[in-house]
Design a protein that fits this description.
The complex is a heterodimer of chains A (458) and B (82). Chain A is α/β, with parallel strands linked by helices. Chain A folds into three domains: 60 residues, no CATH class; 160 residues; 200 residues, Rossmann fold. Chain A is built from 15 helices and 16 strands. In chain A, a hairpin with a 2-residue loop joins β7 and β8. Chain B has one domain. Classes of the chains: A alpha/beta (458), B mainly alpha (82). Chains A and B meet through α1, α3, α4, α7 and α8 of A and α1, α2 and α3 of B.
Chain lengths: 458, 82
Amino acid sequence: MTEQAEPGSFRDPSGLLFTRDGILYRQVNKSYASHYDSLIDSGLYENLINAGKLVRHEEADQNLQASDSAYKIIRPELIPFISYPYEWCFSQLKDAALLTLDIQNQAMECGMTLKDCSAYNVQWLRGKPILIDTLSFETYEQGRPWAAYRQFCRHFLAPLALMSRKDIRLGGLSKLHIDGVPLDLADRLLGIRSRTSLSLYLHIHLHAKAQEKYEDKPVDPKTLKVSRMALLGLVDSLTGSVKRLKWKPTGTEWANYYSFTNYTDETFEYKKATVAQMLRASKPKQVWDLGANTGMFSRLASKMGIPVVSFDVDPAAVEKNYLEMRESTDKYLLPLVLDLTNPSGGVGWANEERMSVSDRGPTDTAMALALVHHLAISNNVPLLKIAEFLAGICESLIIEFVPKEDSQVQRLLASREDVFPNYHQPGFEQSFAEYFVIESRREIKGSKRILYHMRRVR
Amino acid sequence: MVDLDLALLVPSFALLAYIDPGTGGMMLQVIIGSALACLVAIKLYWRQLTGLIGRLIDRDGKAKIPPKQERQHESPRDNFGD
């Protein structure tokens, strides 16, 4: 039997995640036994499972334990694709924050409390946010302050406030600060105008000041008393604060992309039908749609019941994609923000705590529609390097070649010199032939674009 | 002599709070706790009052106005607070 500890699961002494023979297990340590039993016996586990708010698990054979400190071994339901807060759009982070606060309220009703509030503990399953850390709960002790308050503010409230009140791109700060945005930094960036909001004033500005004031003054937490009603008030205040934060995508790069393409309605429908046909031919269990915009082509796969990760660089396009997904209750779509020219790398301890995008693959099928010209011409990435990268993340590929005659490429070349002598159909096919074999090739009627279905050969 | 296993089973704040809660954050909860408790108490009583009025109206055969909390649970988008 081969056993491997998950690199992102070492901070909490209550247990650990490990895989054995390719199956994911979570070990509950003896030190956490009474809290685990309370979670089950209080009915909290059942309540949260029935509401789809906590990941379901089954208890497994004790002999599978990773160490002698095991109390129980549980086998959680698998999440199809692990994503991270710095890849979520505004509304995804907001929904994850509201889920966390809602769970804290339900936990308090059952005599428990969340002992941590890491945004990394929330994932997406069947189109909804879900808490994946079964060991995040502890028995509530009367009078104790909420230990996870600061973490909630750093992981959720601070980035949401910055994205809503300053600039959506500040969501990227979560990638730099793996334990959430420092509150003094958030306070400084938000500036004095944000202090007109009482809740932001309390939870960010005063919170940052209190951190500064008491930084070198250790206090025994047992001497601090906070009533249960005060904790409920705190969660209620945070909930109101999160709900009031809004962001509406306007005036962005891709917002009107489809109105500027070379397509007539007929051409567009032909392209959709061809992509659907190629998807059926490749029979994938999972699809990554790279440069998905608002997810129009991702939905071709999700409607076939195939889980799709729908990546785009533009937070506004991902926001639109997510809101539409939420509205339609699409269970197979996961929109995420990703800059392909600088994709999420391995971050955290030893660069292993949070996986790079490539490490979360390879996927069965990747789609790269109307993407290659942006990578090759706007970002000067040679076609061979694009082919090499795509070969590292997928088994089969549905890709669109957009030639120089296309108005989109002409637009990209309008303000720069054409230093791309090999950017043509034979050059494209030659570069991709190094890694892929072409299964089918279809010209998109009414345009000069070509769709390819390829299979990786090395 | 302390039974080690038994000691491990006793809930311990220090053992489980593996994240640093931050002294400032805990002090802030102590300082603003009473005010937040008052606000949430007023909110809860208000919901109870509107719930009671709703039930009274219902008894008279008119449309029932459910209290806010119940309405939230009825919504399929319970978590999406928009």
